[in-house]
Design goal:
Order of helices and strands: HHEHEEHE
Distance between the termini: 50 Å
Radius of gyration: 14 Å
Helix content: 25-40%
Shape: globular
Strand content: 15-25%
Number of strands: 4
Structural class: alpha+beta
CATH topology: Alpha-Beta Plaits
CATH architecture: 2-Layer Sandwich
Length: 105
């Protein structure tokens, strides 16, 4: 059996049009009308990985590699790399990742 990459799996699940739309959003930083940056944050009480379950859905979803794991069970989002694309929030099975607005410093 041939192993497929994340992009092929995503395309097969959601279709080519959605895959291209999500790919296009990864190259910018989301800002709202007031100049605030949108970032993602992990709720460690809801996160499956923080409760020692093998889950890396957010890691697979992040094209800019803003999410890293300390060991197997401690995901962390690097705010400097996060572009607020919202892919990790949509793929998180426990809805443990939320977007919030951060003022630019």
């Amino acid at each position: 059996m041939q192993e497929r990459g994340r992009r092929e799996v995503f395309t097969s699940l959601f279709g080519k049009k959605d895959a291209e739309k999500h790919r296009a959003t990864s190259s910018f930083t989301c800002k709202d009308s007031e100049g605030l940056h949108v970032k993602a944050k992990i709720d460690i009480l809801a996160c499956m990985a923080w409760h020692h379950n093998m889950c890396q859905s957010c890691l697979d979803a992040c094209d800019v590699r803003a999410i890293s794991f300390l060991g197997l069970f401690r995901p962390h989002i690097n705010e400097a790399l996060c572009n607020g694309c919202d892919r990790c929030t949509k793929l998180c099975p426990s809805n443990a990742i939320h977007l919030y607005q951060k003022e630019e410093s």
